Amino acid sequence: MDFSEKLSTLLRSLYEAAADPERWCSFLEAMLRATGADCSFVMALGADESPALYSQIGFDEESLQNYRRHFYKEDLILERFRQAGRKHGFWVGNRNSILPDAEL
To answer: What is the pTM of this model?
Structure first.
């Protein structure tokens, strides 16, 4: 499969997941296959500061529990996404769009 076919498959999977939240795992699995990564996640924040819609794959349970217990409250990336959403009305982007490597 060439690059354009891989990209097309990923985009199709992304749009399907956006329409049906139960498909986020399928999208994340496709993303892992395409990138060779070990883990990935997607987060969607509501405008009303409600808890994030979150789907992940590849993270061990202990790491997830530690995040929920402590790091969630201190998550700079999550806070930057919330700030961007408040400032612009909405925000779609990856981590680099709100927190450059040099600052992280």
So the answer is: 0.66
Please, are residues 15 and 50 in contact by the beta-carbon 8 Å criterion?
no
The radius of gyration of the chain from alpha carbons, rounded to an integer in Å, stands at: 15
pLDDT confidence bin for 49, thresholds 50/70/90: low
Question: 104 in a domain, yes or no?
Answer: no
Residue 103 lies in a domain: no
Q: What's the token pair of residue 64?
A: 């997830």
End-to-end CA distance of the chain: 34
Sign, CA torsion 91/95/97/102: positive
Instruction: Residue 53: count other Cβ atoms within 10 Å of its Cβ.
Output: 12
| Parent domain of 69 | 3-98
The secondary element (H helix, E strand) that includes residue 19 is helix 3-19
Tally of domains within the chain:
1
The residue type of 59 is F
Supply the pLDDT for residue 68: 83
